[in-house]
Design brief:
Two copies of one chain form a homodimer. With 153 residues, chain A is mostly helical. Helices cover 61% and strands 7% of the residues of chain A. In chain A, strand 1 and strand 2 form a beta hairpin. Chain B binds a DNA duplex (23 and 23 nucleotides) through helix 4.
DNA sequence: TATTGTTATACTCTATAACTATA
DNA sequence: TATAGTTATAGAGTATAACAATA
C-alpha cells in the first residue's frame, strides 16, 4: 500500500523565503527609523512627497496601493509630528494639498541614509552579480504582475 | 556643472523591491487562505504542527520568532475553529501540549495546495535558472543573517 | 449624482508587561 | 525563584462602509 501522497513543505515555496527575508529587512529598517520617531509607512509617504512635491491623499493612496482611509490616518500622524502640511486646494476644495514641511524635508535625507545602511547590512555580503540578479528578478516579477505605479528607473 | 548629489531613491534599495514583491505574494496568499477561513499566521502554525506533531506554545514561538503572548492568541483562534487541541502536559503541568485535530490535519494539504498555486502564480513565469538563483540568494541571506531556526532542506 | 476626503468600526499582527500556575 | 503560559493593554496597519463637503 503506497503511503499517503506528500504535501509540499513550507520551505518548498519561494514565497516562504521571500517573506522571511523581507520581514527581517523591514523589521530592521523599522527599528532604525523608529529612532527618528517614524514608521516605515510614514517613511514611504515622506519619500513620495519628497519626490513628487505637493500632492493629494488620493494620489498617495494610488501610489502606495492603500485605501484613502489608511492614508488619512497616516497623514494625521505626520501632521501631528509637523512633518507634513495639509490644506484645501484652491482650485477644487474637495482636494487636499499635502506637502512636506521644512522639518519633514530635512528629515528625508536622514531616513534615506538609514535605508542605505539597512540595505548594506542585508545585501552587502552578496556579490555584485548576485545583487544584480536579485534586482533583475524582483523587477521582472513586479513588471509581469503589474505591481507598481512607480518604477521610474 | 554636475547637479547637487542626489539622496538615494526609494527604488534604489533592494529592500524596497523585496518588500513590494513579498507584500503582493503574501497578500495574494492571504486572500486564498481566507477562503478556508484561516490567516497566514494561522497557516504557519498549522504547517508547523503538521511537521513536528504535538508541541508546546513556547517551541512554536521560538520557531516562528514570535512572542509567547502572540502564539497564545493564535492558538486560541485555532482552538475556536477546532483546528488544534490544547491540554496540560502530564509530565509538567506548566506545559501545554498543542496538536492538530483531525479537521486541522485534513485542512493542511488543502492549504499547501493553495501555497503551491500562489507560488506558481508569482514565480511561474521565471525561468528555472531564475527561480534557482532567487532561491539560492534568499537562502544565502537567511544563512548569513542567521534568520531561521527551521531550514530542513 | 459623482468625487474627495474623513470618521467609525473592526480585525490581524505584534510587542511589553503584569499576572497565574506550576515546579 | 524560575519557567510556561495567559491576559491586559497598546499601537501599527489595513479594510469596509457610512458620512460630509464640494462639484
Amino acid at each position: 500500500m503506497p503511503r499517503a501522497p506528500q504535501i509540499s513543505l513550507l520551505e518548498d515555496h519561494l514565497g516562504y523565503w521571500l517573506r522571511m527575508v523581507s520581514n527581517h529587512v523591514s523589521h530592521a529598517f523599522s527599528q532604525k527609523v523608529a529612532g527618528q520617531d517614524v514608521t516605515v509607512a510614514e517613511w514611504v509617504v515622506l519619500r513620495t512627497l519628497f519626490a513628487t512635491g505637493t500632492t493629494t491623499p488620493s494620489r498617495v493612496a494610488d501610489e502606495m496601493k492603500m485605501t484613502r482611509g489608511a492614508i488619512s490616518k497616516l497623514v494625521d500622524r505626520l501632521l501631528a509630528k509637523d512633518l507634513v502640511s495639509r490644506r484645501s486646494s484652491k482650485e477644487d476644495r474637495r482636494w487636499q494639498d499635502v506637502a512636506l514641511t521644512p522639518s519633514g524635508r530635512a528629515l528625508v535625507p536622514r531616513l534615506a541614509a538609514l535605508a542605505d545602511e539597512n540595505d548594506a547590512e542585508f545585501f552587502g555580503a552578496l556579490s555584485d552579480d548576485e545583487r544584480a540578479a536579485l534586482e533583475r528578478i524582483l523587477k521582472k516579477i513586479v513588471r509581469q504582475r503589474h505591481m507598481a505605479a512607480v518604477p521610474v528607473d
